[in-house]
Amino acid sequence: MAEIQSFRDLEAWQRAMDLTLLVHSASSKLPSDERFGLISQMRRAAMSVPTNIAEGQSFGKGGRYINHVRIALGSLGELSTELEIALRLKYFTSAEAEKVLEQVIRTRQLVFGLLRSLRRHRLAEVAKTTLIGVSAWWLSVAILG
Description:
4 helices
């Protein structure tokens, strides 16, 4: 597996970009009177996913990255709800909504995987730092008595 050089290397970001394009296309079929309502909300939620992944990745593997990935997950929840609203308003057929929801689900899986990876890395760093701190304390006790 190649090392991640930028957010563009992340499969979660790539899939989120695909989802954004799909949502943009699908939402263009909604009635024009929804331009400043549901269409705008759906597009903003979809764009928020890759945007937050990219922004978070720029901070490194710390807590800010984790927070941005959590925001991306929240945006996926928001988008799922907006798709459900559009379906209930009969703006989409079941087949159209299903296509977008499948992409949302796959994107969510990848973003959750990224979050798990970041949390594992963070726990490993904390454990390493704690172990070094405890070792230094024991060493000072042994030397100073």
